[in-house]
Amino acid sequence: MAQATAANGQIRALAVANTNIVNEVCQRHQMWPVAAAALGRTTAAAAMLGAMQKDKERVTVQIIGDGPLEQIIADADGEGNLRGYVHNPHVDVPHTANKKLNVKAAIGEGHLWVIRDLGLGEPYRGGVPLVSGEIAEDFASYFARSEQTPSVVALGVLVGVDYQVRAAGGLILQLMPGASEGLAIMLEHMVKDLRPISSLIDTGSTPEDIIAEAIGELQPKYLHQLPLRFRCSCSRQRCESALIALGAEELDEMIKEQGEAELTCRFCQERYLFTKEELMALQARIRQDSTQDQ
Ligand SMILES: [Zn+2]
To answer: Looking at residue 190, what is its pLDDT?
Structure first.
């Protein structure tokens, strides 16, 4: 991921290539092409939102629609950790009239939410109704309406006939407070003339190249680069906490009915198995804690 400022600080630019991460998620979930496209676009935007965060704040993007994908979730932080999933990875919808993956039809009508966890208790949550369902325009609408920051957003994913993701990435250009009016119109034109992000990445462009190709005339100054990686924060310990939170009686039923518990992480598909003995040990911990409380 690359970041830059341009036009003497009037513009902030971010660009990202997340092809490998999207491929990893697709393999873990056996994702079909239109789901891969939706996930690739959403995670690209989430990664750039994460990079805008200060410190280690976490940002979660949630797109909820009435189409067959149902929900797309992506989260990222300021350190380049990124993960995501879609509710229904095996979705197929007819292509658009110009033979493209129809992300809009897979998502349907709905909302885009951005949840920022500042680590101060209640997270900040802002959202907008979907204006297009193609995701890039929906993020532009979010930035304009929820963060009062005029932005141009371009996102793209190229899926091969073998279901491999060949390219995924995005670009966000934002006008900073005090930017001149003419600059907004200029940016729109510059991005309109830009080749699709997915074909830029497919032909070897790096995130810095994408910024240079989009706004090279506006003297971009590059800031630090942030390498991205797929990383899930799930763990056996977190699963234990979730089981403990269910309470001793609920665990009793689990032991009687299933004799064990298997928890699957929705983000990375990692499976955590708890045997009867382990569940009984957790129960003992719950009972011990509750006697101590009294
Ligand atoms: Zn996980």
So the answer is: 86
Taking the centre of ligand 1 as the mean of its atom positions, its distance from the CA of residue 59, in whole angstroms, is 16
Q: Which residues of the chain have pLDDT under 70?
A: 55-56, 293-294
Q: How far is the CA of 272 from the centre of ligand 1 (A)?
A: 10
Residue 289 has a pLDDT of: 82
Distance CA 276, CA 274 (A): 7
Provide the pLDDT for residue 214: 95
d(CA 249, CA 122): 30
State the distance from the centre of ligand 1 to the C-alpha of 29, rounded, in angstroms. Answer: 12
CA of 236 to the centre of ligand 1 (A): 10
Ligand 1 centroid vs 233 CA: distance in angstroms? 6
- What is the reported pLDDT for 207? 97
Look up the domain containing 272 and give its range: 236-293
Cα 235 to ligand 1 centroid, rounded to whole Å: 7
Amino acid letter for position 77: D
Q: How many CA atoms lie within 13 A of 288 on its CB side?
A: 7
Q: What is the pTM of this model?
A: 0.93
Instruction: Identify the domain boundary among 230, 258, 275.
Output: 230
- pLDDT for position 237: 96
67 Cα: distance to centroid of ligand 1 (angstroms): 25
Q: Which residues contact 98 (CB under 8 A, 6 or more apart)?
A: none
Mark which of 230, 248, 275 sits at the end of a domain: 230
Same domain, 170 and 252: no
